[in-house]
Amino acid sequence: MVDVIKTERLILRKWKEKDADILYRLAKNPEIGRGAGWLPHKDAEYSKAIIRAVLSDDGEYAIALKDDGNTPIGSIGVRIGSCENRGIMRDDEAEIGYWLGKDYWGYGYATEALSELVRYSFTEIGLNSIWCGFFDGNEKSRNVIERCGLKYHHRNEHLYNSMLSEYYNETMMRISAEEYFHCTK
Q1: How far apart are CA 134 and CA 169, in angstroms?
Q2: 125 burial class (0-12, 13-18, 19+ CB within 10 angstroms)?
Q3: Residue 86 has pLDDT above 90, yes or no
Q4: pLDDT at residue 59, as a whole number
Q5: Rounded to whole angstroms, what are the CA distances from 4 to 1, 16, 70, 116?
Q6: Pairing assessment for the beta strands 129-135 and 151-161 based on DSSP bridges
Q7: Residue 105 CB coordination number (10 Å)
Q8: Mind giving me the DSSP string for the chain?
Q9: Which of 25, 5, 23, 22 is CA-nearest to residue 13?
């Protein structure tokens, strides 16, 4: 995957270790972690470790505003391949996950980033389907996903999140390449 993807207002770019302080300021908010399924970050060193271990993977991007010096406001990533316990059965499919710092909610940034990564996944990578899920109660995420053309596919119920030590339900949304290209004609 490429290192940088640009939209009208955003730059999707690789995370850097020097982003650890900014990541910590964004990800320490408990609302962010709960919506994404992880614990709030406890300090900048923890955030640096997350950048090294998770956010440095291929397909992981910091979401940054073009007009704000390339400072991250959130994260988005595409994971290619099957994940049977989530209902993704083919290796030519991918799941996209994302989150934004709370100060950046309500401006259309998540929709813009997700729309572009869906487009990129179909037109540049050639994937067959894109998946995106949201947890019960996260209607903001549901709205973003629906605006990007994904439709309800199935629910995963009574799953256990060992990091949060709790059970959860999630709705999985999907769009196929055929649906995507039909809609963009």
Answers
A1: 9
A2: middle
A3: no
A4: 95
A5: 9, 13, 11, 12
A6: unpaired
A7: 15
A8: --SEEE-SSEEEE---GGGHHHHHHHHTSHHHHHHHTSPPP-SHHHHHHHIIIIITSTTEEEEEEGGGTT-EEEEEEEEES-BGGGTB--TTEEEEEEEE-GGGTTSSHHHHHHHHHHHHIIIII--SEEEEEEETT-HHHHHHHHHTT-EEEEEEEEEEETTTTEEEEEEEEEEEHHHHHHHT-
A9: 5
**pTM, 2 dp:** 0.93
The pLDDT of residue 184:
67
What φ, ψ does residue 108 adopt, rounded to 5°?
Answer: 85, 5
pLDDT of 62-85, one tens digit each?
999 998 878 999 999 999 987 777
